[in-house]
């Protein structure tokens, strides 16, 4: 997905702006892997194979998303990668 397209996305939970961290791009500079973080509610939405996974909480498949996040944590030395913040 192109950066310009991703920049138009907002958090499905509260419609606030998302911060983009890019991990992998293809030769056309499309984003293949990255993570979108809501500045407001701190939810994180992974971009996998160029597709942002932005389901509302009740439809999120954490068992699919979490292994991807764990891989990125190792590869990119990330900490604090809670997908949905605990209250
Ligand atoms: Zn949010």
Quickly describe the structure:
With 87 residues, this protein is α+β, with helices and mostly antiparallel strands. The protein contains 2 helices and 4 strands, in the order H-E-E-E-E-H.
Helix content: 10-25%
Share in β-strands: 25-35%
Rg:
12 Å
Overall structural class, as computed from helix and strand content, comes to alpha+beta
Helix tally? 2
Shape from CA axes?
globular
Largest sheet: 4 strands, antiparallel
* Average pLDDT metric: 91
Order of helices and strands: HEEEEH
* Count of structural domains: 1
Termini, distance in Å? Answer: 32 Å
Bound molecules: zinc ion
Q: In what order do the strands lie side by side in the largest sheet? A: 1-2-3-4
Q: How many β-strand stretches?
A: 4
Which consecutive residue ranges, at least 5 long each, have pLDDT under 50? none
Protein name: Trm112 family protein
InterPro entries: Trm112-like
Organism: Pedobacter agri
Pfam families: Trm112p
Structure notes:
It is built from 2 helices and 4 strands; from the N terminus they run H-E-E-E-E-H. 23% of the residues lie in helices and 26% in strands. By secondary structure, the chain is an alpha+beta fold. The chain has a 4-stranded antiparallel sheet. Strand 3 and strand 4 form a beta hairpin. It has one domain. Bound molecules: zinc ion. Zinc ion binds next to loops.
Secondary-structure map:
Elements: H1 3-7, E1 18-25, E2 31-38, E3 44-48, E4 51-52, H2 62-76
Bound molecules: zinc ion.
Zinc ion binds next to loops.
Pfam families: Trm112p
Organism: Pedobacter agri
Protein name: Trm112 family protein
């Amino acid at each position: 997905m192109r950066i310009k397209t991703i920049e138009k996305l907002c958090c499905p939970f509260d419609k606030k702006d998302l911060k983009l961290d890019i991990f992998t791009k293809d030769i056309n500079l499309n984003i293949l892997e990255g993570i979108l973080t809501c500045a407001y509610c701190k939810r994180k939405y992974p971009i996998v194979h160029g597709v942002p996974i932005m389901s509302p909480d009740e439809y999120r498949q954490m068992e699919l998303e979490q292994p991807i996040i764990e891989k990125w944590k190792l590869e990119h030395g990330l900490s604090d990668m809670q997908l949905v913040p605990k209250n």
